[in-house]
Amino acid sequence: MSGETCGDVKELRRKVKGFWRGLVRSIEPDTIRDVIEDPKMPGASRLYVPTGDSQAQELDNVVNVEVLPKLDQLTPDFVFSLNKKPGLLALATENGKPLPYIVPGGRFNEFYGWDSYFIGLGLLADGFVDEARAIVTHFVYEIEHYGKILNANRSYYLNRSQPPFLTDLARKVYDKTQDKGFLIIVLKAAVEEYESVWNSPPRLDKTGLSRYRPDGHGIPPETEPGHFNWALEGFAKKYNKSIEEFIELYNTKAISEPQLDEFLLHDRAMRESGHDTSSRFENVVADLATIDLNALLYKYERDILEFASLIGEDPKKWHSRSEARKAAVDKYLWSETEQIYYDYNTKTNEPHRFASVTTFWAMWSGLASPEQARQMVASSLPLFEQPGGLCVAAKAPKSAKQWDFPCGWAPHQILAWQGLRQYGFVNDAERLETKWAAMVATTWQRTGKVLEKYNVCDIDHAEDVSAEYGNQGSQENGFGWTNASIALAV
Ligand SMILES: OC[C@H]1O[C@H](O[C@H]2O[C@H](CO)[C@@H](O)[C@H](O)[C@H]2O)[C@H](O)[C@@H](O)[C@@H]1O
């Protein structure tokens, strides 16, 4: 790294400490209006509170508060019915006060599932332990009241989750606080989430592995206008309708289109995977036992085992579960010849041969054996390494989406750095951290912004990623997980 770049990185690192403040939100009378605001859906003005949360209900003299029905009534049809009156979902309070949370930034003005994990890591690196602990408390609240850690706390996200990271963040917070009471609460919620969301049908498959496969109905309303035009044109033509007219007919079930149902099943699963959208997942992901999710669930099993031991409960069951998952991953996902983990198609019963950088999640979670890790570093790492760090994929698809080549994203970098270090590949981790931090910092100097994602293959134009809704991030506050990556790399 040149002296100038090194200076940019250090300056950005200092800035990041201050960026967090601008991303903090809190559901309380003075701030509720700004917090409810949804750049994705202008006009959102409601706060939905779960049955039984009387504290959140007290805000009804400031905004329009509506109480949700009980958990088992949050069906796809019910959630769809809220699309005409979208709103924010209440989060946890503590000692009678709302607990603040941190949003990613840009068009994402709500509490996200996996973004919050990475934000939590950044907060811990910056010494904000209470704020990181609050993220865990919100996750627990969401599991108790909404049945899952939500994609984010908006009404239209009620039926789906995101990649699960509760236990690792809780463990890291516990390491700082040594609060066993906190661990007991987390353990109960994590087991509940594991059993009812990830280890039950429809997500659990006969292989014993899990898939992203949420329920839902209709066209996802939070996407930018025209997002689905390419997929809907043919259907609209068939009925001699405009795309808007067709959407209305389809959404209200006036017409039935099983082929579109199938496309949207995968689309929802792709959003649950956090990788919306990508050519790896389009039209297939609800059938895939991905390396991503199964690595994360292995980590849950290992963490739950440890939490149970720490509080004096019998951890045996979790040992068997993690061993069974490891065996299934080795059987179905590991490619001995190509030395990489592929996803497995549970419908066609064959590997989905798409090389993804998430293969390194098997190292982050401890799922890979030392030999598998060595082979992946030797054979697969070079496929993804680019001037700006790790790319999502090894090659360009026909039509690139934002989670495709040539993009690189902070969560992928962070998990790979940690995975590499865990298996002793410290030089590789340091080299990748340096490449990424240098690219983020020089782009920040050039554009004034810290962004959601980067073109890691063309670092002189790294901000140039126009796929889908463009590139989020700002001058004042950066972007949540990228801020975190700088806090962790430097
Ligand atoms: O509005 C379109 C989609 O936006 C979200 O996805 C992207 O931003 C999230 C927040 O940073 C991030 O978690 C996700 O990985 C990104 O792809 C949202 O999560 C989607 O559900 C939504 O349809």
From TrEMBL:
One of its GO terms (molecular function) is alpha,alpha-trehalase activity. It catalyses: alpha,alpha-trehalose + H2O = alpha-D-glucose + beta-D-glucose. Keywords: Glycosidase, Hydrolase. GO terms for biological process: trehalose catabolic process. PROSITE patterns: TREHALASE_1, TREHALASE_2. Its EC number is 3.2.1.28. Belongs to the glycosyl hydrolase 37 family. This is Trehalase.
